[in-house]
Amino acid sequence: MDRRQRLHGHAQRQHYRQLKVFALLLVAVLAHAGEIPLAERRSGYDFMSRETRSMQDDETTNPALFSLMEGETLFKTECASCHTDMKGVAARYPAVKRGKLVNLEQQINVCRTERQKAPAFAYESKELLALSAYVGRQSRGLPISVSADEKHLAAGRTLFERRQGQLNLACSQCHDDNWGKSLAGTPIPQAHPTGYPIYRLEWQGMGSLQRRLRNCMIGVRAEAYAYGSPELVELEYFLLWRARGMKLETPAVRP
Amino acid sequence: MAAVAVTIPKTAKRGEVIEIKTLAAHVMENGFRRTQTGELIPRDIITQFVCTYNGVEVFRAELYPAMAANPLIAFTTVATESGTLELKWTGDNGYTATHSASITVS
């Protein structure tokens, strides 16, 4: 081997070494970019200011109180002849019922239209928000325990990880990869739907998880799925499965 | 319907500072927003809140369009004697809401 060859061999070895370092870095980045480990999950509550947290914790100043009061009245007049204890119910939704994935709001409407022969409540109507808040309140403090239906979970996960909209962003790029950092001055939470329906200060009122999801989709300049569409319910389902075991805070207050 | 939620301690020691927390259900429409067709949504807010303690005014607040919906007003007063606290909210479009609570001072 003459001197030139030796030099060439040396350069090649160095090149391989650089490649190896690059590959290791790539693996490290990919590993970081994955799902949030179960023990590191944090509710949106942890990212809020002290004032907003105390607003949620104090039942006398939680502004969702009015919705709860309305829900209680509605429940007692419309639902109480069949249902008594709703403890733990909200922690199990969305759920597969008769082969179809439905969220809590949809199940309330199934009950109304099929068993009571009453007209369904519109999405985001005061009545539907009040009833789902009231039913959700019965499960406050209980761990989220949705089933694990492979097919719907996979569909929800695909939607969560798919880039969409003009900004070409996937949910996971913010909420898995960059949680805890700031977006326009507000912290990026991990997107665990632990307290829906919520009283959102920005909305000055109550709203469902689907309203929040549509907000985010409009934020990345995507065309939001319609209320009640199977895609949104699947995304809800995946998010609740992702938050499995975390405590329900319904009705939560969010900034 | 004018729903309010008020928290007042039922009993207190004379001279004790008590906290009164109130929440009134109200849209607080600020009067600057427009509909999708460009029409101005008329202002509809609570304009005044007054609390009297045995007929004596102990707290008054004037509210303006920059207040959020369902305004939360919390304040303190000194428990001087047993009696009633009268709370009154007034606002646009003839809105009024009242709440009274009795307190026993020992």
Secondary structure layout plus pairing:
The complex is a heterodimer of chains A (255) and B (106).
Chain A: H1 3-33, H2 50-57, H3 65-79, E1 95-97, E2 100-102, H4 104-115, H5 126-137, H6 150-161, H7 171-175, E3 182-183, E4 186-187, E5 198-200, E6 205-207, H8 209-219, H9 230-242, E7 253-254
Helix pairs in contact in A: 3-5, 4-5, 6-9
Chain B: E1 4-7, E2 11-12, E3 17-24, E4 46-53, E5 56-62, E6 72-78, E7 83-91, E8 96-105
Short description:
In chain A, helix 3 crosses helix 5 (126-137), helix 4 packs across helix 5 and helix 6 crosses helix 9. In chain A, the strands form 3 sheets. Chain A has a 3-stranded mixed sheet with strand order 6-5-7. In chain A, strands 1-2 form a two-stranded antiparallel sheet. In chain A, strands 3-4 form a two-stranded antiparallel ribbon.
Structure description:
- The complex is a heterodimer of chains A (255) and B (106).
- Chain A is mostly helical and 255 residues long.
- Chain A folds into 2 domains: 1-30; 42-254, Cytochrome c-like domain (Cytochrome Bc1 Complex, Chain D, domain 2), CATH 1.10.760.10.
- Chain A has 9 helices and 7 strands, in the order αααββααααββββααβ.
- Chain A has helices at residues 3-33, 50-57, 65-79, 104-115, 126-137, 150-161, 171-175, 209-219, 230-242, and strands at 95-97, 100-102, 182-183, 186-187, 198-200, 205-207, 253-254.
- Chain A has a 3-stranded mixed beta sheet with strand order 6-5-7. In chain A, strands 1-2 form a two-stranded antiparallel sheet.
- In chain A, α3 (65-79) packs across α5 and α4 (104-115) packs across α5.
- The radius of gyration of chain A is 23 Å and the shape is globular.
- Mean pLDDT of chain A is 89; it is low at 25-32.
- By secondary structure, chain B is an all-beta fold.
- Chain B has a single domain (19-33, 43-105), classed as Immunoglobulins (Immunoglobulin-like).
- Helix content of chain B is 0%, strand content 52%.
- Chain B has strands spanning 4-7, 11-12, 17-24, 46-53, 56-62, 72-78, 83-91, 96-105.
- Chain B has a 5-stranded mixed beta sheet with strand order 2-8-7-4-5, with no helix packed on it. A 3-stranded antiparallel beta sheet of chain B has the order 1-3-6, with no helix packed on it.
- In chain B, a hairpin with a 4-residue loop joins β7 (83-91) and β8 (96-105).
- Chain B is elongated.
- The mean pLDDT of chain B is 94.
- The A-B interface holds A 55, 58, 60-61, 63, 65-66, 69, 201, 204-205 and B 3, 5, 7, 21, 23, 25, 27-28, 68-70, 72, 74.
